[in-house]
# Entry
Amino acid sequence: MKLIKNFLHLDLALYLAWTVALSGTVLSLYFGEILGIEPCNLCWYQRICLFPLAIILGIGAYRDDRGIALYALPLAVMGVLFALYHTLGQWIPSLFRSSVCGHGQDCGIPVFTLFGFINFPLLSALGFVLILILLLLARKNGTKK
Amino acid sequence: MNMKKTLVLSTAAIGLAVLLFGAVYESFQDSKPIVLETVGFPSIGNRTAKVEVVVIEDFLCSNCKEFTQHVFPQIQTRYIEPGQVRFTIVPVAFISGSKPIANAALEVFLSSPDRFFPFIEEILAYSRDEKVEGISLIQIAEKVGGIDLARLQDCIDSDCHYWELEKNLQWAQAVMGKDFGTPALYVNGKSTSTRTFEGVQERVEQVLNETH
# Structure
């Protein structure tokens, strides 16, 4: 009982932001490195924003250092922007239409689609938005303290 | 240690464990067989054998050399000679300097098919830096014997199989995709490691048992 009470009193915003980043990293590595699905260019840009978050937010959560949120916020914002652009590109293929064919994975082709509109970039955008909200909360709580 | 630190460390451990479990689980999953269209590629062994081993290799690739010198002879003695396996080789040339060698090998296959494997064995016997570039392909062909040297010289001069090598490379890239690398070995379309004879043997025996 005491354990649950203690748990509820913990300010978990930073920790939760980190768990979202960590889950995204694990998922991304699982699909990319273990299942061998090649990430496209835009996926790489999102990875560039996500992977550092899984490290620095982990350190921040461990040390309970909410100041880290300020450094993580730009990465989360950039991640949201890349993911939203990628999502739109998969919904509206004409956005990605090019006059030349390139080498490598096409960003406009979804790896999977659920209910006709849920795809990887959308999940990525939701993840980044969640991280963003949690980081803002962590910063707000930190300032109050 | 306070509760938050314990929570962070346990979560990190869970994340790492999930990733490791996924990697181990996937590595134990059998790769799905693919259909390989190998008509026209150099091949030895029983044409009606139930097992076809296909190897994609670059003659200047050091791991291919390792495979050809240590694993291939065992496959030959154990399975090709008794007629249980048909062995097909897809020569590709993506390493700098390997095109002339693969070009000559393809010409040897076309003019004297039975001299193809002795010819590539002889090429691979030379180390990359010291000899193949020093010794001419004609000299190697002469040493192997039974090869039309004039025709080979013509082909070397005109790069006569370069277009075919380009086609082979595209074929291999389509088969392997992101995991492109040589040597790549397939037993009835199932990707198999070339590292040891035992690994190949296990897969060939499995296929032989299934087809009996």
Q: What stands out?
A: Chain A has one domain: 12-95+107-144. Chain A has five helices and no strands. The two ends of chain A are 26 Å apart (CA to CA). Chain A touches chain B through 21 residues (CB under 8 Å).
